From TrEMBL:
Its main location: membrane. It is a multi-pass membrane protein. This is Sphingomyelin synthase-like domain-containing protein. One of its GO terms (cellular component) is membrane. GO terms for biological process: sphingolipid metabolic process. The keyword Transmembrane applies. It holds the Pfam family PAP2_C. The chain crosses the membrane at residues 82-100, 107-128, 168-188. It is found in: Membrane.
């Protein structure tokens, strides 16, 4: 193996090990929130599976988006799925970039705690809405004449518990009012907007969110109202949760920052005033935030 390859691999390994030592204390403090957020993703899937049993196909509702946006057709419905997969994978990789790159602004554990908080709050609202009112699904497999439009009573509890994976995930009906894909997309874009560093990536991410919205309507997977509700509700959820949660710690001060959960705004202000007082009186600070 060439010398420069060995040096590069050794340097990368040191970066990963160093980042692991930083993230482990955060993980020890926040693992309950992470586990709870992941478990709720299953609960959300279980709720979507349950409403499929209540779905009854019917005439597609009048929709201005269906009138204005050309229909892609059943064969091209995977385009929106491919775009969503690329957004999901790109964001997930970005959250782990501190393990690889030198320029670090985020803590991976804290970012995922926030992302899961946004997702859970949005998904709770989504579950409430699609159980409150069941609409005839516009997707091709949800229309009248399709065998998948109405599910027969489950033959066993396992069929429900395991969501009839993967068919039950891919061919759901009845979970309307919100678009699940738009919830994830908007949460990811909002998170990068606040914590990312590249301006052109932020602009491109918002453009992809708009394209994703149009593709979902063109694929007839959701009504236009599902997209509209997702756009204003998810952004509002992110805004409200950000006001309640403390600010993320700035990694530009990593040399003096002791890994722990971020302080609240009030704590930061009081600590900042105390530091200014000590500095004015010539007292040496032992730590900084």
């Amino acid at each position: 193996m060439p010398l420069y390859v060995r040096r590069g691999a050794s340097k990368l390994w040191r970066k990963i090990c160093g980042e692991v030592t930083v993230e482990i204390p955060l993980l020890a403090e926040s693992w309950k929130y992470l586990i709870g957020g992941v478990v709720f993703q299953y609960i959300h899937g279980l709720a979507a599976r349950g409403v499929h049993y209540l779905h009854r196909p019917g005439p597609i509702l009048q929709d201005i988006g269906f009138l204005l946006i050309p229909e892609l057709g059943r064969e091209k419905g995977s385009i929106s799925e491919a775009l969503f997969a690329s957004v999901f994978c790109s964001f997930a990789l970005w959250t782990f970039h501190p393990f690889i790159f030198q320029n670090k602004k985020i803590y991976t554990v804290l970012i995922w705690c926030r992302v899961l908080a946004y997702l859970v709050a949005s998904q709770v609202l989504r579950i409430v809405t699609f159980y409150s009112t069941q609409l005839p699904g516009p997707n091709y497999h949800c229309r009248e004449g399709s065998e998948l439009a109405t599910l027969p009573p489950p033959k066993s509890v396992l069929e429900v518990v395991f969501l009839n994976f993967p068919r039950g995930i891919l061919y759901g009906c009845g979970d309307l009012i919100f678009s699940s894909h738009m919830i994830f997309t908007l949460v990811f874009v909002n998170t990068y907007q606040k914590h990312g560093t590249k301006r052109f990536i932020k602009q491109f991410a918002w453009l992809l969110a708009v394209v994703q919205s149009l593709l979902i309507i063109a694929s007839r997977k959701h009504y236009t109202v599902d997209i509209v509700v997702a756009w204003y509700t998810v952004n509002l959820v992110v805004f409200c949760i950000d006001r309640k949660l403390p600010e993320m710690p700035d990694r530009s001060m990593a040399a003096t920052y002791s890994p722990s959960l971020p302080l609240s705004t009030k704590d930061k202000e009081s600590k900042g005033r105390g530091e200014q007082y000590n500095l004015l009186n010539g007292v040496t600070m032992s730590s900084a935030v």
